[in-house]
Design goal:
single chain; 368 residues; alpha/beta; TIM Barrel; 7-stranded mixed beta sheet; 13 strands
Length: 368
């Protein structure tokens, strides 16, 4: 961890993540804080202009040079650590199973590939799928280049109904849940099995020497197999349908992993929080309020946090576009209400060195 900085070495950060997964932090909450340096750690290297389309995501000499310069211009403070994201969009499992991508510099969209019914589209492993082979290639190249200086994150495969929605389109999948429930449940079982075919191959490629791994979404590291799981499609579902279709495969998925965090996205998804808290092997919940809503430090989300806290799960929240004093104020309120043992605070975006000093000082005192 060549660029880990600001007084906390990597071994300390690892132990604090282990404690957070267990809900057993002691000195302060887990805090991710990217700090913009005024001068680089070392001279920057020239970076070629990224080509459009697929090349933007797969041209490894350009991507690696850009990332090395990013590391040189940042301090990875408190519990932050350098890690490289190499995603073909959120939900690359859909590409491996037949979708085609639409690339833009901001994200990758997927063209639906199931146009009539999943009854005619069983889900099977295809070792020769172009996007699977290409994704593995760039991850392998990045892992060789990392050489212990940074993690190459396990990519955002996604799972469950979100992949079926990408393959089919959300509107048609809603109808399928009513017209072909048994077919959808069968495909979800197949998808869960396939998730581990791909995930295990990538975990074996990207794990550290001690078997630990870092997952791309939400900057989470853990000993063993560490994964973010999600179902953004749940905003189109009743709690009854969510329990019927999604929860059974989430139970199986979480049971086969070492550290799991559920990404809950938007106010319409909050109604499913009680069902999620019943997943015994789910360790944590990550909350994304969604566009146009207050960030994770706002008191309006406390009822959700109460549900998570009372279930004994760890909690991931973020503070966005705020000055250092506001960040410290919000953190203190959360610590006062929930304690520090299971709390992970992410500050977005990166802050200046002077702002970082204020936050680091408050974190050293546990935001008390």
């Amino acid at each position: 961890m060549k660029y880990k900085s600001n007084g906390q070495d990597w071994s300390q950060t690892k132990q604090r993540f282990i404690d957070w997964w267990k809900g057993d932090l002691h000195e302060s909450p887990l805090v991710s804080l990217f700090v913009n340096r005024t001068t680089p750690h070392e001279p920057l290297e020239p970076v070629a202009e990224a080509k459009p389309g697929e090349h933007y995501y797969s041209d490894m000499p350009v991507i690696l040079a850009r990332f090395r310069n990013q590391m040189r211009m940042q301090n990875y403070s408190l519990d932050t650590y350098p890690s490289l994201d190499l995603n073909f969009g959120p939900g690359s499992l859909a590409l491996y199973l037949g979708c085609e991508p639409i690339f833009s510099p901001e994200t990758v969209w997927f063209k639906p590939c199931v146009h009539d019914s999943f009854a005619n589209f069983p889900l099977v492993y295809d070792k020769n799928n172009y996007w699977w082979k290409e994704h593995y290639r760039i991850l392998e190249e990045a892992q060789k280049a990392a050489n212990g200086d940074f993690f190459v994150n396990v990519p955002d495969l996604v799972e469950n109904l979100d992949i079926l929605a990408a393959m089919r389109n959300p509107e048609d999948l809603c109808i399928d849940l009513l017209d072909e429930p048994d077919i959808i449940k069968q495909r979800l079982e197949e998808l869960n099995d396939l998730f581990f075919v791909y995930y295990d191959a990538l975990y074996d490629l990207l794990k550290d020497k001690d078997g630990s791994s870092s997952f791309t979404a939400f900057r989470v590291w853990g000993p063993g197999k560490t994964v973010k799981i999600q179902c953004d499609f749940n905003v189109l579902m009743s709690p009854e349908h969510f329990k019927e279709f999604a929860i059974p495969t989430f139970n199986k998925q979480c049971a086969a992993l070492d550290n799991t965090i559920f990404h809950l996205d938007g106010p319409d998804a909050i109604r499913h929080a009680p069902a999620l808290m019943e997943i015994g092997k789910l360790d944590a919940l990550q909350w994304t309020p969604g566009a146009g809503h207050p960030d994770g430090g706002d008191e309006c989300w406390y009822p959700l946090y109460d549900i998570v806290h009372n279930a004994g799960k760890s909690l991931w929240v973020y503070f966005e576009d705020a000055d250092a004093e506001t960040i410290v104020y919000k953190a203190r309120k959360l610590v006062k209400r929930y304690g520090m043992k299971s709390l992970y605070i992410n500050v977005l975006p990166s802050v200046s060195e002077s702002e970082a000093e204020i936050i680091i000082k408050a974190a050293a005192n546990g935001f008390k």
